[in-house]
Design a protein that fits this description.
Number of domains: 2
Mean pLDDT: 85
Structural class: alpha+beta
Radius of gyration: 19 Å
CATH superfamily of the largest domain: ATP-grasp fold, B domain
Distance between the termini: 29 Å
Low-confidence stretches: 1-9, 234-242, 304-312
Amino acid sequence: MQADDNDSGHALSWQRVMLAGSGLAALRAEQACAELGLDWRNAANGEDIVERAVRLGCKALHPGESSVEEQWRLARACQQAGLAFIGPRESLIAAMCDEAASRQLMREAGLPLGDTRHRTPCVHLPVLADTRGQALALIEHEVLDDTFAVAPSERLTPEQRAYLGQLAIQGARAVGLVGLATLSFTLVGNRPGFVAMWPGLTGFDGLAEVLTGLDLSVELMRLVAGERLKRPRVGPMGHGPGRPGQARWRRLAPGVGQLGGGPGVRLDRAVLAPEAETRLLVWGRDGAEARRRERRALAEWGGDAGLSTDGDDPRG
């Protein structure tokens, strides 16, 4: 689906936002607040985050990359305290916590269901949706192990990719999604099947970002604030939804080395927390170019992330 263009100048009404988490998990939320011209605060260790948000005059709470269960807890607490929660509504997150409930919602929406009795590698598809019922499926990715993910999936044909996007949009609209969620599907032969849904940021969002030119943390905040869905711009390597190229994501050992930069290379890490997680993103016009850049970046960093062919949780 083609989304409306709208550049509202990012005049959000929250003014001050409380951020959950620390290190890299909160970094993207901090960057989004800076881009949107918002003030933000972080919770102190051991302190009730919602209580601190109210005391500091925050109007909204961003969960960062919290687990589904933690987002549900925060969404309920925000509802009781009168704070905006930057994510899907509380009842939808509650359904995401319950596999049977989320599968029932998608069954009612007309989506085929995947067989969860066998561990089958999944493809994960981020979806953005606004308050007007518009939804946009981005580039899918596969998590191949705890340290490696790739987008788009090399198992999908263009026709399967288009069909999967239609299913994801259909499901997001049916459940009234506002903001960002990732829908996970099994793919057995030519048959996709829905298995799970994850709210907000997952940590793998950079894969879609470098291939579409959208900042998903910014878009999440815009959409929850009531702004319109935006059409993806052409990505930094000239990629767009029609020719996505390839992006590769790796979790690196913290503080091992330095990168010299260059085209198609991005390093995500919290400078003030060098012991925290570090993520490498590389991308190119095709898989061969992306792999060359990845080998160069890993050699500069001094680490080797390894590679396997398993994994089905978009949070690693």
